[in-house]
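Progress note, sequence design subtask.
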């Protein structure tokens, strides 16, 4: 058994996962940690990571490094997404992380994000039949992937992440109008894309990942099975979105007990989620509660043990809730 670690440096938060991999490719995730370092806030406003944010990220990496060392992990993989990808000083950031902690961070594309998301979902859920859309709502971007009978058919990335959208909404002149316009464009594009790739408008399964989607599931869905997958009908999402809008930021903190770094971004996430579900005629949402860190851990384990990734081998997976 080999202990491995994976770090996802996202635009809204950084996440660590530690897992134990067997020689036959089986993987057990034993610890997950989240650090709410909002890298995207400065980048999407000014194009650069501030020294204050970089210092906070380094501190979080030091904590991650200590946990990894104590777990005796033999390999650590770390990736960064849109915030670092777009930052003018992104290379300086990754070099400082390496210098201070010894952990190398690889900046990945939106396409690679979609591939890792597909690995994570395939590891958790049985998506081997029918057509599915996988939607990962992050702080800087929304990653979309289409699968047919478990096979990844196509993917695309759009700059409609929640932290980025907070900047749009805060624009006093065009904020809400511009936000609604961007959401409509992405939803219309997604609908046309599904028809182009799969040859039909509707989907069999709609799967959502990301911290905001999980929080929406906590508010509107129900837990299914021992592995805590969430499931919600589109009407549940509609009611949750209405409640989030009516409560406002302070109400979300006070009545829903959402943390500060969740209370603001959950609203644009719910708007985007609802628009995409309506665009592809999705009747329900399945939330497997996995993300990029799990996908990276699975990918690292598969490469290390030279076994096929979970999408390519038989496994006892959780069925899609109905």
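Output:
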């Amino acid at each position: 058994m080999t202990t491995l670690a994976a770090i996802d440096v996202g635009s809204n938060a950084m996440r660590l996962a530690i897992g134990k991999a067997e020689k036959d490719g089986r993987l057990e995730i034993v610890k997950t940690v989240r650090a709410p370092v909002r890298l995207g806030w400065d980048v999407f406003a000014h194009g650069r990571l501030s020294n204050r944010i970089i210092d906070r990220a380094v501190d979080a990496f030091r904590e991650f490094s200590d946990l990894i060392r104590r777990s005796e992990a033999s390999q650590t993989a770390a990736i960064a997404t849109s915030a670092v990808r777009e930052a003018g000083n992104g290379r300086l950031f990754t070099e400082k992380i390496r210098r201070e902690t010894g952990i190398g961070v690889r900046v990945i594309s939106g396409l690679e994000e979609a591939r890792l998301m597909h690995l994570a979902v395939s590891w958790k859920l049985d998506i081997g039949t029918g057509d599915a859309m996988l939607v990962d709502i992050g702080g800087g971007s929304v990653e979309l992937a289409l699968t047919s009978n478990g096979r990844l058919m196509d993917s695309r990335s759009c700059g409609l992440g929640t932290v980025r959208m907070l900047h749009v909404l805060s624009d006093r002149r065009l904020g809400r109008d511009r936000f609604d316009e961007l959401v409509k464009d992405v939803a219309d594009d997604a609908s046309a894309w599904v028809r182009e790739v799969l040859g039909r408008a509707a989907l069999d399964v709609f799967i959502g990942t990301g911290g905001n989607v999980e929080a929406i599931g906590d508010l509107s869905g129900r837990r299914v099975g021992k592995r805590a997958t969430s499931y919600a009908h589109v009407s549940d999402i509609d009611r949750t979105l209405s409640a989030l809008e009516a409560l406002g930021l302070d109400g979300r903190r006070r009545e829903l007990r959402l943390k500060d770094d969740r209370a603001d971004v959950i609203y644009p996430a719910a708007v985007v989620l609802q628009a995409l579900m309506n665009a592809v005629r999705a009747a329900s949402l399945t939330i497997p509660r996995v993300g990029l860190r799990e996908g990276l851990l699975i990918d690292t384990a598969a490469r290390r043990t030279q076994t096929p990734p979970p999408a390519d081998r038989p496994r006892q997976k959780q069925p899609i809730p109905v």
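The chain has two domains: 2-108, 126-287. Work on this subtask will continue into the next period as scheduled.
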